[in-house]
Write a structure and sequence with these properties.
Elements lengths: L10 H9 L7 E2 L5 E2 L2 H15 L4 H12 L5 H35 L9 H7 L27
């Protein structure tokens, strides 16, 4: 048993990290099995932690490159992490907005005995700044003067 089983990353994921260049290929046993050393394990822990924090594969690649440099330029890491932090904050704000909409919609459902479901009606309405673009297809275009089905 190698050390990779201790860090709870599946074999397919480890091979993917090898294919995309995040993890160097390990040496092989005479039977063809991959032999991971402590440097591989350390790198896998780094990758797993970065991915858990939401860094993309490209960002992880950059972080690994910076970590591999002898000088370890903290300023570059700080810029990358700062940009990621802003993305995380934007996602949190989006999630809070989604929570408010869902909370309000669920509250309007009351006890669920109404004939018209507020949630279904809310899903039919277009959210601000989220216009739907339909493909240019004769089946999906409305003819001038045609009625729009009621919602």
């Amino acid at each position: 048993m190698d050390g990779t089983s201790r860090i709870a990353i599946g074999g397919e994921t480890i091979r993917y990290y090898e294919r995309v260049g995040l993890l160097p290929a390990p040496t092989r046993s005479p039977g063809g099995y991959r032999l991971y050393g402590s440097a591989h394990l350390k790198r896998l822990i780094f990758i797993r932690r970065a991915r858990t924090l939401g860094f993309s594969i490209g960002e992880v690649r950059t972080l690994l490159r910076l970590a591999d440099e002898r000088k370890r330029p903290c300023a570059e890491v700080r810029v990358l992490a700062g940009a990621h932090l802003e993305d995380v904050r934007a996602k949190i704000a989006d999630l809070r907005a989604m929570e408010r909409v869902l909370r309000d919609t669920v509250a309007r459902c009351a006890d669920g005995r109404r004939a018209n479901c507020a949630l279904i009606e809310a899903l039919y309405r277009e959210a601000p700044n989220q216009a739907v673009q339909l493909p240019d297809s004769p089946d999906l275009r409305r003819k001038k003067g045609s009625a729009v089905p009621p919602r």
